[in-house]
Design brief:
This protein has 237 residues and is α/β, with parallel strands linked by helices. Helices cover 41% and strands 21% of the residues. The longest helix has 19 residues. The radius of gyration is 17 Å and the shape is globular. The chain binds zinc ion (ZN). Zinc ion binds next to loops.
């Protein structure tokens, strides 16, 4: 495995995730660093996160509404230029033609060089945790939408002009091959994650230190203070 520190900043980047807090937790330091470096950053959130609670009496609509404002606040902190909220029901994502069409349309509008999305092959994390179904589904849907669909004009011909994404950066990967130095933006990532009050409860400080520890651990792999790891897949030569 080659250890690569990724320094270049894409002109445009599109992050595709399932739930309102996913992009911040998965790649918030990278999105903020790219935005500071001049990248135009767009974020797609596929579900409204309306089942993200342990309270049986919670109102799903109220929860979804508060999660929208949390996502808007965190996007501002990260310097996101466009937030696309698809509003699908939480826990029910399918990598079907309808979702791929929505993603293709956004890819063709934004025309990013880079997409960032979950690694769909990351399923089991140790002995106590496995990856949320929506994360696995959106991981495949984003890749399937980027290539070949978005780059091939005969796929969804009424969803914009074909666009070739250059590379996909898959977060949460068990097999990372590139690292982004987020030493300058780790605090901003933590600030963005802390916007998601509906998800954090009293765990704000615990999450902040877990995020810092995780990024510090990743940074050690490549000799920097804090990093986020990705599996990079080239989609174009
Ligand atoms: Zn999630």
């Amino acid at each position: 495995m080659s250890e690569t520190l990724l320094d270049e900043v894409p002109g445009k980047a599109l992050a595709v995730y399932a739930h309102p807090d996913d992009p911040d937790i998965s790649c918030g330091g990278t999105l903020a660093r790219w935005a500071v470096g001049g990248s135009l950053v767009h974020v797609v959130i596929c579900t409204s996160g309306d089942k993200g609670t342990t309270d049986p009496d919670a109102d799903p609509e109220l929860l979804a509404a508060s999660r929208v404002s949390e996502a808007q606040r965190s996007a501002e902190i990260l310097g996101v230029n466009g937030l696309h909220l698809l509003g699908h029901p939480d826990g029910e994502l399918e990598n079907d033609k309808a979702l791929r069409r929505e993603l293709v349309q956004i890819i063709r509008e934004v025309r990013p060089e880079a997409i960032i999305s979950p690694d769909p092959l990351a399923v089991f994390f140790g002995e106590h945790h496995y990856n949320h179904r929506d994360h696995r589904v959106v991981g495949w849907a984003a890749l399937d939408a980027a290539a070949p669909a978005a780059s091939s004009p005969l796929y969804f011909p009424d969803a914009g002009a074909a666009h070739q994404v250059t590379a996909a950066y898959l977060s949460g990967s068990l097999e990372p091959n590139v690292w982004v130095d987020v030493s300058s933006t780790i605090d901003r990532k933590i600030q963005a994650v802390s916007c998601h009050r509906s998800q954090l409860g009293d765990a704000n400080e615990w999450i902040a230190s877990a995020l810092r520890d995780g990024a510090e651990h990743a940074g050690r792999e490549v000799g920097v203070g804090f990093a986020e790891p990705f599996r990079r897949i080239w989609l174009a030569p």
